[in-house]
## 1
Amino acid sequence: MSSRIAVVAVDTNVVVRLLTLDDQDQAARAERLFASNRIFLPQTVLLETEWVLRRLYGFERQRVIDALRNLIALENLQAENEQTARLALDWADEGLDFADALHLASSRKVGHFATFDAKLRMRMQRLGEPYVFEI
């Protein structure tokens, strides 16, 4: 990439290379992209990155949460729905599955979230978030 682009949205594989450094060439290219551009991180990429790091790479839960927090804290990175992402990471820190936490954080503004998952409902009530209910 020879010139700076205003904003570049990144795919999961770019983020994973940046965070794992498991392919030196691709990791270096990802680092250059991040260093020389403003980056947009779609919420779907954040969700998929968490899954890939945890399930495919076997990263411990806290390592994944910390890596994603550090990623969205980058000065030149704009996360889609950043407040939602931060809330989901906070809830994941409290023991919620990250995907559930992101679904809930994304839905919070409508006031109610229906689920058959009794454990999820109880966890959210313990966190002071009673808007999750069973149907």
Note: The chain has a mean pLDDT of 94.
## 2
Amino acid sequence: MKLQDATRQYHQRARALSAEATGRHIVQAFLDRLMQQWFDEITLDLVAQDAGVTVQTVVRRFGGKEGLLSSAVKTLGVQILARRASPCGDLGRLVENLLRDYEETGDAVLRLLALEPRYRALKEVLDFGGSEHRRWVSDAFADTLSELEPAPRKRTLDALVVVTDVYTWKLLRRDMGRSIEATAAAIRGLLQSSISEFSKPQ
């Protein structure tokens, strides 16, 4: 390979890596805002300012606010799964990690849900989040669910999805003012009761 070609390839790789890093900074800047503010309060100007880039760079990379939201949700999904990861069968750790996630993201998710009827992009994102939550529950309780016949498996999975939903966390932590410890105990009890009750043949 000629030196000129090698140099060109080096610069192309460097530009690609720089563009990728810039994209990550922009997404994280948006996510940081999303954890604190309502979606409709966040402007591209604020995100660009936080990321240290121009608005034109944000638009060129993501096409606008909805494109940025779509990319940010994918990043957020990876972060959520990492926080929720727990050894299979360890109910205590599972609930502890779930609550750790909701303590960080729960209020932001609730704000997005409140705005869902007004923004089609939010509905698509939240539908995706709902399906991913169900997938996580299915994986987290795979050992228990795999032992059940199709009908009780579906009933049990439905119940487990409800018990671990962000609205359950909201009721306990925000509406009832329960401590994290009390919330964890309540959710553990509800999970155990759901498995016991809905896994029975009907």
Note: The mean pLDDT is 89.
## 3
Amino acid sequence: MGNINYGIQLYTVRDALGQDFKGTLKSLAKLGYQGLEFAWNYGGMEPAELAAFLKENKLLCCGLHTSLDKLLDPANIDYAYAVALGAPCVTISLCGSLEKDLPGMVAKVTEGAKIAKSKGLTFTYHNHAQEFVKIDGAYVLDLFYQATDPALVQAEIDTYWVKKGGADPVSYIKKYSGRIPQLHFKDMNPETGNFAELGTGCVDFPGVLEVAKKDGTKWVIYEQDSTAPNAPLDSAAISAKNMLKLLKS
């Protein structure tokens, strides 16, 4: 079984970042997060400056979420950040687009993935619940992965959205063994169906983690979009505590 690092998608604490970018990153480091997955916000710092700040605070970049348009632009600044920060992966999502134009999206994503690869980056696709609609009896997300080259298009499976879409996260992750360098750890309140702090909901994270360790996943990344009962940084603290306990078990 391989070693797995743990991080946080910074979209989780987007409001705090707007108030105090550097202070928020330092707080996340104190909570025990090893890595940060960036999403559009770089604190007004240039790539080299941000890279130096992460190094100073013993933080790693575990990924960078961008848009399809930016992925398709080799000169986009997000690539400069990804390279400077040592991001292993660059990621996009296409909420509601795959089922509307699967062939077109496959072509565009493949083109973008080739650009990412040329810069030494792995491309991963982040799912939501929309990709679990079916076409001719098959999930759109499965059709997407079947139509793309695993050497170019990897997966950042999101546990909450898999469950929200009606599939079992453990079984679904097993299906793409060896193709998931990153996993989004996101929990679900079983009563409301809303997001929950990691380890407080109904997602089988011990089962997910067992599969992930066997399959060579490098990063598990906590994310919580909204709708939790606590403030984002408080939720991050709860989730960090539960994540560390889980990873050590």
Note: The longest helix spans residues 102-118.
## 4
Amino acid sequence: MMSRHRINFMGINKAALAALPSILHKLLPGGLIIGNEYAARNPRRADHNIGSFKVNLRSGKWADFAVSGAAGGDVISLVAYLNDCSQSAAARQLARLLNIEVSHG
């Protein structure tokens, strides 16, 4: 029987915020830091120009203002959106990228 551990979403998001610019350069190459935001092309659509897809560097909130409903409140949700996967899978991917423990308890 496998033991299950809860994913420390808050801890992973906190660690991601501390390293957000470098994470975004890996996830969304070619983007630009403009003020407190990272602007990039959205790889999930035929996005030819930087401008409508942005991530707030302080909060991790993100949105593609050209796509209805394409928005989220943290870095894990961004990874889930970009990779079309669950929040749990995204948290694990982000934890691996950050080289941190996935779970607590």
Note: The chain has a mean pLDDT of 91.
